[in-house]
Every structure is written in structure tokens, then in C-alpha cells.
Amino acid sequence: MSERPWLREGPLEHRVESLLAELTLAEKAGQLNQPANVSPGDDHDALAAGRIGSSLYASGALGGNERDEGLSIAAIEQCQRIAVEESRLGIPVLFGRDVIHGHRTVFPIPLGLAAGWDPDLVERLAAVAGEEAAREGVAWTFAPMVDISEEPRWGRVAEGFGEAPVLSGRLAAASVRGFQRSIGATAKHFVGYGLAAGGRDYDTVQVGENTLRNLHLRTFRDAVDAGVLAVMASFNDVDGTPMHANRRLVREVLKDEWGFDGVVVADWSGVGQLVDHGVAADARDAARQALLAGVDLDMASGCYLAHAEELVVSGAVPAEIVDDAVRRVLRMKFRLGLFDDPYPRTTDEPIGPTASTRALAREAAASSLVLVGNDGVLPLREDVASLHLTGPFVDDGEALLGTWVLDGRGEDVATPLAAFTELLGERVSHTDGRFSDLACHRTREAAVTVALLGEHPSRSGEANSVADLGLPAGQLEALRQLCDLGKPVVAVVFAGRPLDLTEVLRAASAVLVAWHPGTETGPALADVLFGRREPRGRLPMTFPRSTGHVPSSIHARGTSRVIDFSRDVWGGRYLDALTQPQLPFGFGLAYTTFEIGPPALDRSQVPLGGEVGVQVPVANTGGRPGRAVVQLYLHDPVADVTRPKVELLDWQAIDVDAGATGSARFTVSTDAFGYYGRDLSRRVDTGLIRLIAGPDAAHGQAVELTVTEPTATREDDA
Ligand code: GLC
Question: Domains in the chain, start-ordered, CATH in brackets?
């Protein structure tokens, strides 16, 4: 074997091509094969023969809520030594794991992180998660999930960053930057998965390319522009073509149009499941379609290993298709430095949680909490005479981690009971989730009750959709009983999705949406409830008034009959319910009050390609300092296609002292008004544009500008 030139430093593509040229067709098929949970014993021969290019350690096809026995650095290292030292070309194996919102230190679920509207924080969290995972032999995570969805019945909204492409896209890019300081990241699930019919996971998706481009593809583009090394194909079809066989979107849009040069990895058995979709006759046909569509790496189905060679030899798949796929896999391995440093970098340092990662987790959990109702009972006083904690989340660490946690541990969680007891000592009483008579008795006795209710993580995540957005059975009735006792009750709602909180808001003195906050739930909750940290979360998804109102989001576009709530006229309304959402996108209260707006422009005529400065005054009209999240929305009243009534353009979080004023400043390019028209090409129109500034999607003040033809001279554009 001539010395291995690809091991020498040099231009990436030279290293890739010099190695690719050495591979046999069988070895190429091996590089495209990603079985799950390889072990040095069972898989020794396959590793030594180069039939396993990568592997993922997962608890099973439904990794989101199934635990496994955890990672074994020793097993990973042994597998890697077999591949590097015993196979013909010594190509390292790429080991993947779902590190979604933390590894050993668990942060809030991504939907909770989105409520913090803080890309810098999300980047720091992903960096810590990637570093912890790398220390256990993981080189690649299947995150961030960047699916846009307005469908709270779907269990996987927990894993995403909400319904707004601008918010979700920036957080996705931040996650990619953070993870990829240590390990490879994956933007998933490409594309349209959040549109599954009825919110039922894996169900069919009816959507046109225009909506995909104007809503669902944007976050993937943000991740690709941030340098994500991989993209994962989604389980769903798009208008009849399953994504694992969707040449138009995978090869022509993602790879050709965008120039994505990373790896497209199948989702778990997604290649083989083309047979279940009913578009492939057998595994060979499935492999053929997926390769032609541009799916490079076959997770868990084995179809590529079994059929790729024959497909090329028979001419069913051009050799260049397989070469391109292998080139991408090798490129990712080189980019991750695997050829230079293939073995886990272990140290004696504790992997986590540590004091510093707990401090970060506490900051993240506090930033995720959204105050959605408060009659003045909050913030609580630390000299409160007595406090009663009740509900199923009082001391259940595992239930506070959230879905898609494989390596975090319930026993590491600082629970509400632990944190409140540390703060208040004997003044804390508690009852568990049964909301028993004892709970009523203790509520009567206590100065204030904090009811910790909502849904267990096992009701969210993959394959966990619900048909009813109400609280789990019995909780609302119990809450009402507690509230009817006439003492203040604060409801803290743990959830992996927007829930129907209509009755909770009516009954409780205050309501805090907590998602699933992770390892530092208790201290973060105490920080916010006692006012040591101001509540700063804002909803990243609309909370509908009822399940029957779904879909209900800022995706709503112009229709022929406009809803006008101020007049009894036509419009898509319900006869039996108010139509507007219970809680709008972007909503969240503080312990103070703000007055936001009206926005002021530095010019009202903006040439195509130019920019406009927008200044939004913010007055803190309350008695405490606070953080306002000033949101800037776009409405394009005349376009080539129907456009959203409000579309998030930008936001700025600013801290304003009590009684003080501040201002949010935006610089908006006319390019931000761009969209895909009927001909599926991106365009920016001249004409009227409305910018709306406010505290959420439903309350804002508008200002109008006109986009004009470019001016001839440069100073006009200044
Ligand atoms: C699952 C999920 C995907 C995950 C993969 C590996 O089915 O859909 O998000 O990354 O399989 O666990």
C-alpha cells in the first residue's frame, strides 16, 4: 500500500480526491452505510473490511424518549482502532449521537430556548453540549432541528425553535456555530416535516414549493450559510414525493441551487421506508431512488450496503452519483479532523454537570420562562410566611429534563422542591402530583401555593402527538379546586408544546410557561418567581384558544374576506368562539410595564438595495427594571403572492430601568422584504411596505415606507 497521501496536510479537496481514487466500489458502499450502535465484538469484521463508514449511538428508532445504557468511550475507541488500524485504507468511522439540548448538562428544550430570543446564549449552550459529547467520543450530533411548524399537536415542536423563520433561523445558525466548535452539526429534518397532517408524526404533507421557499426552507438555508456539515432528510412526503426520494428538493435545491457540499444523511431507516411509503418495490429500488435523489448516507436501513455496488455495476445508478456521496462523507471526516485525530480525547476532568455548566443551565432555564398571566402576586417576597408546592413536577428530576435527552440524568436535576427548600427552609410544604385533599388543606394553610403542572416529556418528542391541547386529565379540575380556596395560586406549566391555557389563565393568580427547563429547573424557577431574575421569555409559538383553532399562527396570510374584529363583518371567524389566539406569538409579561413605539424611520423612500433606519422608543412605565423584547414585523400589502399579515423581521432585547426610556434601533435592508413569487424566483418589489413595532405579533404600531427604483446617483442611496 503506497503511503497515504491524504494523511498529509494539504488542500481539503486534494486529500478527498486522493483517497476517493483508492476506494473500491465495495468500500465506497461501506462509507455510505451507517448502522446503529456498532460494537467492537459484533461488528469487528465489518469494521475491518470497511463496510461501516459511520455509526450512531441511539436508544432505538424512537430515540426521543427511550433511554439506553449510555455511551462507552472504550467501545468507541476499540471500534475506531479496528477501522483505522485493521482496514485496508484506515478510514476513521464517524460516530453520531442525538445531542439535542445538552449532553450531561441538560438545558431547556429547544422550544424553551427559543423563548429566550437569545442567539448568543444558544450558541454558548450548543458549544458546551458539543464539548461534553466530544469528551465521550461523539463526533457528530443530529441537531439543530430547524423545522418550522404552526402545529402544537405535533410532538416534535418541542425540538424546534418555533413558528417564525427569522427567529428559528438565527437560533439554528447559532446552534451550528456552537456545536461545530467541537463536533459536526446537522440541520434537520429537510423539509416540511412540521406540516404533518393533523399534527400526526410522519403523516403526509401537502404544501407547494412557494410556501416551502417562503417559510420552511429558510431556516435550512440559514444553517447551510452558517456552515452546517450535514442535513438530514425528513420522514414525510411533500405533495406525494417522499423526501428520501425527492430529487427536486434535495439534489436540485439544497445541493445544486444552494451549493451545499456537506452530507445529506437519511433519517432512521428513511431509505428503506420508501417501500412503506409505497413508492419503492423493494430495498434495491429504495436505494436506487434515494441515491439518485441525493441522499448520501444511509442511516440504519442497510439498503446502500446491500445494493449500491450492484446498482452502479448494472448502470441503474451512475458511478458519479456514488462517488459524489462518498466525496461528501470523506469531506466531512476531513473537516472534523478525524484523519488527524480519530480517537476520543478523554481527560480526567468531570464531563458534567459542573458548577460552571450548571450556572449556564440556570441562566438558560430562567431566560426560557414566559410569564403569561399575573394579577400582581408575582414576584413573591422571600420573607413569605409559607409556600406550598404541589403537582407532579415538585421533585421529579427526570420529568423536568424534557424529550430527547439521552445522556442527562434525572438525579442531577435541581428540582423545585430542593431549590425552594434551600431558599425558604421549613416554610415550604409540598404535596405530590395527586392534588389530594391534603393539597387543598396545605393550600388553605399556606400564604401562597405554586402548582407545578403540565405534561410529562413523554407526551412530546418523536411519535408523541396529541389530539387535545388541554392539560393532562384531571389537572385543570384540581387547579380549579385549589384556586377556589381563595388563596393565591401560581400555576407553572411544564410542556413540550403550546397548550390551551384559557381556563388556567382564568383560574390562577399567575401563570408561567416553563417548557421543560432541564438540569437547573428549581433554582431558575425560584430566581424568577422571587424576582431575583426578571421574567424575560417571549412565546416562540402562538398559543391557540383551543385545539379546534389550530392552525393559529403568524403564518396566516391575506384572504379574500378579511377578519375585522372591530366590526360584525365577514371573515374567517368562528360562530362559537373568539377567533384570535389565546396568546399571540412573541407575547410575554415582565414584572414591570413597557410602552413600545411608535416606530420612526430615518427616511420614508428607500431605493431597492438600500437600507432604512428604524428607531422604536421604549418606556419602562413600571416600578422595576425589565427587559423589553421589541419586535419588528413586516406587512407587504401588495405582492405577487399572498403574504403573511405579520412576518417577524427582527427583534431587539433591551434592558430599561424603572421609569426610564430607551430605544431599539434596527437597520432594515430592502432585501429583507424579499419573497418567492408565483414563478418561484426570489423578488423584492417596489411599492408600499408597512413596518410594525410592538411587544408581540398582535399589538404594534405601524409606519409606512415606499421602496423605490434604484436611484442613479450614489449619494441618493446614502
Ligand atoms: C429519529 C429522528 C431523528 C434522529 C434520528 C437518530 O427517528 O427522526 O431526528 O436524529 O432518528 O436518532
Answer: 5-97+186-228+230-335 (3.20.20.300), 355-549 (3.40.50.1700), 594-717 (2.60.40.10)
